[in-house]
Design goal:
Chain A: Residues 32-107 form the DEP domain. The complex is a heterodimer of chains A (468) and B (338). With 468 residues, chain A is mostly helical. Chain A is 56% helix and 6% strand. The chains are: A mainly alpha (468), B mainly beta (338).
């Protein structure tokens, strides 16, 4: 998880929940009664107020959260990395030591959630102040930053120096202890937000995670594979977005009546009315299917095949046309693909005997090329050995038998006889209770105008809408 | 080192060309394509059931194909099988390791699986008089983040060791290992035809794999942080991903690119889980800020919120018949909404 991510539209997005949690802990650590006991700390000759030791922090965490030493140290370390606590003695060393080293809480002004924009200008002023205060105070990388900034924002450099001088003058007015505290706070802030090169920027990287290098080596072998993969990817055929999106829109629209959350369902949604009639009516073994279910078979061939009842109906139709062996073959192939591995060789053998062998009782019509390839593969049967043949028969049925089935009397009769369930009334108590529905879709109200064809359906649906 | 630098450059150059090819076919966006569609109504789903029984954070849940039973996994060390409609706990499976991160229900309803920081995927048989452990699939070198059954004989797993694997449940061995990610794999989703699956990882990429030959067929980029949740849309032509960068994206497989991004300036927490309604129109995305937002996938707008949990929403699921949405949370409750 990264704290700071720059999204594509250039918006910085910080993981606030993580920071909020940290800050809640920091605040409770500073609670006057239950928090860490702060004391004055001697730094050279000055006394720094409100300081604590590393041991204090670790022990407080252990006591408060009933965790181990190791975990307390780890959590405490996070506070320092994200700038909520800073060390006094060695400010550049952002680690938590479980000894008597002194630490202080950072002022909320500098907290990450305050999102004080750490701009270039502010950083320049900070560096300038350091430079003016004591020549040679800036260390290597700071010197480089200073020079780089000097070049980059040269036009406002006078302002920078002026501001720096002004801030230094104002700080001289303060008591020494206060001044040192403010300097420490500011320094701590910049150490977190402008870390020296080479150290991991905790803001951009988030909590430390094991790097990829321990699992995937970014070596020549890796790049070789990448190049190969990219080459194949480049050569792929891409479909125009307009076509893809159009088909997606069509799908959503076609399936909307079948989406119970969008459009409710008849007789009633079992989750709302506690009436399980819907499940009874749509079970596999029901005598007469619902209209919606039969309609769905006409959306695409897979819808028909995925419904056991649909398969049964289709098989009946194919038997009339003397091409039932196609569906049986397809089902047998599915069984091979999804069944037990141990049984594959014997299943494949059965399939060959029944459907593929010359003179087989239920011989299926596959083109010679596919047949040749399949027979070759049968010498070493595996789960997908029948895929090509299955695909061929699938498309045969899809292009030929399926459209004719949809136009057939068998299908049309079933569709006419199919049930449109009556909406059930829920009576909870002896007195009639108003029926609860999920908020009816205003789309339903508009749909009644459009769907005059589906008279029965729309009447019931609009009934649903108006009842609320 | 010069040679490796060369290769790196070549790989990058090819990537740039791929981006150009993608741009070339991107002749319209979702907003234009869906302009004629009526906006989805403001969806107000109510909690219909609250399933109480877990004693610690719930990390995962999965519906059974019968639309009533579901399995949920919690770090109290238990898998609970619920008859969600009545609210009864049908079974409780004690886990050897309480650090569970995922659970799955087999399409047949006979098996469930769980896995987590123990690096193993354990499969249990629910149909024996006493629930038995059928297999312990032990070969990953990292935590198990997601598992999905293809049938009673095969299961797919995604792991923190950056690989996904297809296992044979009879032998307990890995049949295929899918190697290409460079970050922890966090989630996976099977295509409706079960010939391929997609995985999302901490390298902010989503990859499409062929189950049969183990090859990575396509890579989708665009996210700027870990992808925590991924799902095929019902038609199987596109995928939706949810990420720590606080956005969800839809990638179309045939166009080989991102087609829309679901984001809101006010949303500042990562996406932990997602599920789609039957038509694919509604996306239910669980976020770190304790809410589950509902997106209109065509219009790219937020049309509702499921709020009621007291802690992060860690998992969401829509059953096959699309009757409701279930959300599981770190507050130890599962809620059913519609």
């Amino acid at each position: 998880m990264t704290i700071n991510t720059l999204s594509q539209d250039g918006v910085q997005r910080q993981q606030m929940p993580c920071l909020t949690k940290m800050e809640r802990m920091i605040i409770s650590m500073q609670d006057p009664d239950m928090g860490i006991k702060l004391r004055n700390q001697r730094l050279l000759i000055t006394v720094i107020p409100h300081a604590m030791t590393g041991v204090d922090i670790v022990e407080w965490l252990i006591k408060k959260f009933s965790i181990s030493d190791e975990e307390a140290l780890h959590v405490g370390q996070l506070f320092i990395k994200y700038g909520y606590i800073y060390p006094l003695k060695e400010p550049r060393n952002l680690i938590l030591k479980a000894d008597d080293s002194s630490y202080r809480f950072q002022t909320p002004y500098y907290w990450m959630s305050t999102r004080w924009p750490a701009s270039e200008l502010d950083y320049a002023i900070y560096l300038a102040k350091k430079n003016i205060r004591k020549q040679g105070e800036l260390i290597e990388y700071e010197k480089e930053c200073y020079n780089a900034l000097h070049k980059r924002i040269n036009h406002t450099w006078d302002f920078v120096v002026m501001q720096a001088r002004e801030q230094l003058r104002a700080s001289k007015q303060r008591r020494k202890a206060d001044r040192i505290v403010l300097e420490c706070q500011e320094q701590a802030y910049w150490l977190v937000n402008r870390p020296p090169p080479g150290t991991q920027d905790s803001i951009d990287h988030g909590p430390e995670r094991r790097t990829m290098n321990t699992r995937v080596q970014l070596n020549a072998e890796f790049y070789k594979k990448e190049i190969e993969h990219n080459r194949i990817s480049l050569a792929r055929n891409r479909v125009k977005s307009s076509i893809c999106l159009e088909s997606y829109v069509k799908y959503c629209e076609q399936y909307q009546p079948h989406d119970p959350i969008m459009q409710g369902c008849l007789p009633s949604n079992p989750w709302i009315t506690d009436d399980i009639m819907f499940w009874n009516m749509t079970s596999e073994t029901v005598a007469l299917p619902t209209k919606l279910r039969v309609e769905r078979w006409s959306f695409c061939f897979m819808e028909l095949l995925n419904d056991p009842m649909g398969r049964k109906e289709f098989l009946t139709y194919l038997e009339k046309e003397f091409s039932a062996e196609n569906l049986c073959f397809w089902q047998a192939c599915e069984d091979v693909r999804h069944g037990e591995t141990a049984k594959i060789p014997e299943k494949v053998d059965e399939v060959y005997k029944q459907f593929l062998a010359p003179g087989a009782s239920r011989w299926v019509n596959i083109d010679s090329k596919t047949m040749e390839k399949t027979l070759e593969g049968l010498k070493r049967p595996h789960r997908f050995v029948l895929d090509d043949a299955q695909m061929h028969i699938y498309f045969l049925m899809k292009k030929d038998s399926y459209p004719r089935y949809l136009k057939s009397e068998l299908y049309k009769n079933l569709l006419a006889r199919a049930i449109v369930p009556q909406e059930t009334k829920k009576s909870v108590f002896p007195f009639m209770r108003r029926q609860r529905h999920s908020s009816p879709s205003p789309a339903l109200a508009t749909q009644t105008a459009e769907d005059d064809g589906k008279a029965k359906n729309s009447n019931s649906n609009s009934g649903t809408a108006s009842r609320l | 080192m010069g040679e490796m630098e060369q290769m790196k450059k070549e790989a990058e150059a090819l990537k740039t060309q791929i981006e150009a090819a993608r741009k070339a076919v991107h002749d319209t966006d979702m907003a234009s394509a869906a302009a004629g569609v009526a906006p989805a109504p403001q969806v107000q789903l109510k909690t219909r059931k609250t399933l109480k029984g877990h004693l610690a954070k719930i990390y995962a849940m999965h519906w059974s194909t019968d639309n009533r039973l579901m399995v949920s996994a919690s770090q109290d060390g238990k898998l609970l099988i619920w008859d969600s409609h009545s609210g009864n706990k049908v079974n409780a499976v004690p886990l050897k390791s309480s650090w569970v991160m995922t659970c799955a229900y087999a399409p047949s309803g006979n098996l469930v699986a769980s896995g987590g920081l123990d690096n193993m995927c354990t499969v249990y048989n629910l149909k024996t008089p006493v629930i038995k452990t059928v297999k312990e699939l032990d070969a990953h070198t990292g935590y198990l983040s997601c598992a999905r059954f293809l049938s009673d004989t095969e299961i797919l797993t995604a792991s923190g060791d950056t690989t996904c694997a297809l296992w044979d449940l009879e032998t307990g061995k890995q049949k295929t290992v899918f190697l290409n990610h460079v970050g922890d794999c966090m989630c996976l989703s099977l295509s409706p035809d079960m010939n391929s699956f997609v995985s999302g990882a901490c390298d902010s990429l989503a990859k499409l794999w062929d189950v049969r030959d183990g090859q990575c067929k396509q890579t989708f980029q665009g996210h700027t942080s870990d992808i925590n949740a991924i799902s095929f849309i019902p038609s199987g032509n596109a995928i939706i991903t949810g990420s720590d960068d606080c956005t969800c994206k839809m990638y179309d497989i045939r166009a080989d690119q991102e087609v829309i991004c679901y984001q809101d300036a006010a949303l500042n927490s990562g996406v932990t889980s997602l599920a789609l309604s039957t038509s694919g129109r509604l996306i239910f995305a669980g976020y770190d800020d304790f809410n589950c937002n509902i997106w209109d996938s065509l219009k790219g707008e937020k049309v509702g919120v499921l709020s009621g949990h007291d802690n992060r929403v860690s998992c969401t699921g829509v059953p096959e018949d699309g009757m409701c949405v279930c959300t599981g949370s770190w507050d130890s409750f599962l809620k059913i909404w519609n």
